[in-house]
Design brief:
The protein has nine helices and no strands. By secondary structure, it is mainly alpha-helical. The protein has one domain. It is flat and about 45 Å long. The model has no long low-confidence stretch (mean pLDDT 90).
């Protein structure tokens, strides 16, 4: 039940990352949603016109579907955050840091200094919250903390991880 509710809310988060026509602070065009959208967008051209919206919806459901697939083991007897989750999100944080560091100049040039700093700040907030939840769960394991850790981590991936900083296509 929690997985389904969490995935539905993640669907809205995933939608919001591309809700504006250009990257903004509330719609940062996270590459985890943008790239699947680019890859399957052309499917809408071969579908009947009344179904042409389906590829866009499908692309925005990828992160919520991964959340369901990844989180199903949370309901086992353990309340600890699984090692595989720590490894995955540690790697995502490192890759996101590298991506942000590498796109600083492009972000300043195309989105502006305020937007670029805001993207850095939002990512930093998510990283700190994820680390805090991990440490809290390590000290006192609970399903609730583990679930929140996973939901926050996937919300970060769906919304602001790997934000579009640079020239638009």
């Amino acid at each position: 039940m929690y997985n389904l509710l969490g995935a539905i809310v993640l669907g809205f988060v995933s939608y919001s990352t591309m809700s504006a026509n250009v990257p903004t602070i509330y719609s940062p065009f996270s590459l985890t949603v943008v790239l699947p959208t680019f890859y399957i967008y052309d499917l809408g051209k071969i579908l009947p016109s009344f179904l042409s919206f389906l590829p866009v919806i499908l692309a925005r459901c990828i992160v919520p579907l991964f959340f369901i697939a990844w989180s199903h083991k949370l309901y086992s007897n353990t309340c600890k955050i699984p090692r595989r989750s720590i490894i995955l999100f540690s790697m995502m944080i490192i890759l996101s840091f590298i991506s942000l560091f590498g796109s600083w100049n492009y972000g300043i040039e195309y989105q502006g200094k305020f937007h670029t700093i805001a993207m850095y700040g939002l990512n930093l907030i998510f990283w700190v919250v994820m680390i805090f939840l991990y440490l809290l769960n390590r000290k006192k394991p609970s399903f609730k903390i583990s679930f929140i850790f996973h939901w926050i981590s996937f919300a970060w991936l769906a919304w602001v991880a790997f934000p579009w900083l640079g020239e638009l296509l």
